[in-house]
């Protein structure tokens, strides 16, 4: 009995294994635990309350303050993130979970102006229609506001923009404005005649507006030299393409969820393709009524 009590006392005195981890490894674990949570800001403060060591690591390490979700943070919290993130790159997130008109004034006049002076640090811009709000061009006013107030995103590598049902390709996503862009996702887009993303793209995901008119030669405008992943979805495209006329030298993944894709498949040459998915997609009947 005495031996058992002594052993228990020794175990109690010992630090738990999680507290014996090197700081670098603990930072990686905490960072992952925060990133996978739907509310990163809330999760960060929950973990900071576990112990003094965890709190000090989270408060003192800039990596935990680089994601700024504008629609869930108040002005004070945004400024705290900007200060604690030091000079690291920033991930700007906008999640629309209510009627868009109810948040645009807040974004445009109170929140976006706080992060605009740090646009040189923006690594990603992600806009999510989390509430399933009907696209009525309201979301696109975010892009219009950004385009009117920012001339260039010198560090932006990732952009996800929904509700882009515009008759022209967004100018703020042109090569002159996003020279380093590698990942681009556009929802409710059209087969624009002026489609001109930067040639640095590695991943391109386009969800076309259902049965929207397409520029017949639209695929020829897709940058091909560095693209490794291409995903196209939406209604019938109506493209007019020549066989073996579009070469994707490093394309590895191709996902097609579109109608009338046979011309596109015959037109592309992708010698390094490793993964291919295809599902037909048809316009809803009401578009023809």
List strands and helices in order, with pairings.
Blueprint: H1 2-13, H2 23-35, H3 40-48, H4 52-60, E1 67-69, H5 75-84, E2 90-95, H6 101-115, E3 122-128, H7 140-149, E4 158-161, E5 183-189, E6 203-208, E7 229-236, E8 246-247, E9 253-259, H8 262-267, E10 268-269, E11 275-278
Parallel strand pairs: 1-2, 2-3, 3-4, 4-5, 5-6, 6-7, 7-9, 8-10, 9-11
Q: What does this 3D model show about the protein?
A:
- Helix 2 runs antiparallel to helix 3, helix 3 packs across helix 4 and helix 5 packs parallel to helix 6.
- Helix 7 links the parallel strand 3 and strand 4.
- This protein has a nine-stranded parallel sheet with strand order 1-2-3-4-5-6-7-9-11.
- The relative contact order is 0.07.
- The N and C termini lie far apart (85 Å).
- It is of the alpha/beta class.
- It has eight helices and eleven strands.
- The C terminus is likely disordered.
- It has two domains: 50 residues; 213 residues.
- Pfam families: F-box-like.
């Amino acid at each position: 009995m005495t031996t058992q009590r002594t052993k228990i006392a020794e175990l109690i005195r010992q630090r738990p294994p999680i507290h014996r981890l090197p700081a670098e490894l603990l930072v990686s674990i905490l960072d992952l635990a925060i990133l996978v949570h739907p509310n990163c800001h809330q999760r960060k403060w929950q973990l900071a309350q576990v112990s003094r060591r965890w709190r000090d690591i989270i408060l003192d390490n800039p990596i935990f303050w680089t994601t700024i979700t504008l629609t869930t943070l108040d002005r004070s919290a945004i400024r705290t993130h900007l200060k604690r993130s030091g000079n690291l790159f920033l991930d700007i997130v906008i999640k629309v979970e209510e009627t868009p008109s109810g948040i645009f004034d807040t974004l445009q006049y109170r929140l976006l102006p706080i992060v605009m002076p740090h646009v040189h640090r923006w690594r990603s811009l992600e806009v999510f229609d989390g509430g399933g709000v009907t696209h009525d061009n309201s979301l696109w006013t975010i892009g219009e506001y950004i385009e009117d107030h920012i001339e260039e995103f010198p560090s932006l590598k990732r952009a996800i923009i929904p509700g882009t049902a515009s008759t022209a390709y967004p100018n703020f996503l042109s090569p002159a404005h996003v020279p380093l862009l590698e990942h681009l996702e556009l929802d409710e887009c059209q087969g624009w005649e002026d489609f001109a993303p930067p040639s640095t793209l590695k991943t391109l995901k386009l969800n076309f507006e259902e049965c929207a008119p397409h520029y017949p030669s639209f695929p020829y405008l897709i940058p091909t030299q560095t693209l490794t992943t291409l995903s196209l979805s939406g209604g019938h495209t109506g493209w007019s393409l020549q066989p073996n006329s579009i070469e994707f030298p490093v394309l590895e993944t191709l996902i097609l969820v579109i109608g009338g894709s046979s011309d596109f498949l015959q037109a592309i040459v992708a010698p390094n393709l490793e993964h291919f998915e295809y599902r037909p997609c048809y316009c809803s009947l009401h578009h023809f009524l």
